[in-house]
Amino acid sequence: MIRSVIEGVGSYLPEKVLTNAELAVKVDTTDEWIVERSGITKRYVAADNQKTSDLAIAAAERALKAAGRDGKDVDLFVVATTTPDQIFPATAARVQAALGRPGVPSFDVQAVCSGFVYGLAVVDNFIKAGQAKCAVLIGAEVFSRIVDWTDRTTCVLFGDGAGAVVLGAQEGNGSTADRGIISTHLHSDGRYHDMLYVDGGPGTTNATGYVRMKGKEVFRHAVVNLTEAVNEALAANNVTIDDVDWLVPHQANRRILDSTAQKLGLDPAKVVVTVDQHANTSAASIPLALSQAVSDGRIKKGHLVLMEAMGGGFTWGSSLVRM
Ligand code: UT7
Fold it and tell me: Largest CB tally within 10 Å, which of 37, 254, 300, 310?
């Protein structure tokens, strides 16, 4: 059977760093509160002239280089983002124009913090259906643009960045020993729309709006949904948590990562953590974490990696991948 194999990973973080101490000058917060409640110590913020597509293109270039591929090899560009450059055209079209061949398909996926996991499912299905042979999937966000910088309950939690993977079609034997995406599992429950949302948009206020969140409720749902999504991936593939080399979770809150690992009975040393350095970069957080762990040599070819995410909607999901 055809497998979608991750051939290369890359990421890009903007230059500007915003520390907790700097934030404490803007809003009524402290470094101690932010670290204790979220694990976050700093976040990266895009320059005024940097758009999501700029971050996405930089990350995709690095992923293509790591894969030994040229953008002209790519026959599908997908960007997972909640902060597109414009309502339309898709941010992915800018990436395709910068790196790809004219004529190949490009589109955005919107599933907020679950966007990268949703994107993996979409790209995997294109590749398995024979409609793409080499795809670039990017999670990219300038979340700082939709954060209310006067709201201490949300503004301390988010950051900007981008991560990308190049996925190529390769023949596998259908077992979990194959390299590539082994399975994807997606969910949503729109009844929880008002727990985590942006209070604007073209169809409501005709303005962009800002992130609003009932943090405690989201936290509670996140631990339950993420644990279920991981167990679903394990059961579907007849593997145990001990078979997993690395958990690469969406990075929202250090306490969510710790609680989920504990519920799963997973050794915390197997969890890739970047939330302390990047904060929550929404759709970019998983590929940013993946990129970090690949580049520092922790994640190696052949390792079994479980990714999971949960975000606004609610949306959530998981993907089991052999690198
Ligand atoms: O990526 C999508 C998924 N997102 C998430 O998963 C986020 C989930 N939620 C969370 O990460 C946590 O709920 C938060 C980090 C947002 C909040 O942590 P918490 O332990 O649930 O705190 P809380 O909201 O219950 O707030 C506790 C107190 C409140 O004061 P009172 O009412 O107890 O007097 C808040 O007003 O902390 C106060 N507070 C702050 N204090 C200092 C809230 N934000 C801040 C702040 N600095 N930045």
Answer: 310
Say if ligand 1 is within 6 A of residue 37 CB: yes
Q: What is the mean pLDDT of residues 97-122?
A: 98
CB 75 within 8 A of CB 132: yes
Instruction: Output the pLDDT for position 301.
Output: 98
Domain boundaries, the chain: 2-171, 180-322
Averaged pLDDT for residues 305-311: 98
- At 32, the pLDDT band (50, 70, 90 cuts) reads very high
**Closest alpha carbon to 44 in 173, 144, 148, 120:** 144
CB neighbourhood size of 173 (10 A): 8
195 Cβ below 6 A of ligand 1: no
**What is the token pair recorded at 238?**
């007849």
Q: What is the pLDDT of residue 85?
A: 98
Atom 10, ligand 1: residue with shortest CA distance: 215
Q: Which CATH superfamily is domain 180-322 in?
A: Thiolase/Chalcone synthase (3.40.47.10)
- Confidence at 152, pLDDT banded by 50, 70, 90: very high
Ligand 1 center–CA 110 separation, angstroms? 25
With b meaning 16 or more CB within 10 Å and e meaning fewer, what string describes 229-254? bbebbbeebebebeebbbbbbbbbbb
Same topology, domains 2-171 and 180-322? Answer is yes
Nearest protein CA to atom 16 of ligand 1, as residue = 215
Average pLDDT, stretch 2-14?
98
Tokens of 282: 């929404």
Q: Which residue has the tokens 């904060």?
A: 279
pLDDT tens digit string along 281-290? Answer: 999 999 999 9
| Known catalytic residue at 134 | no
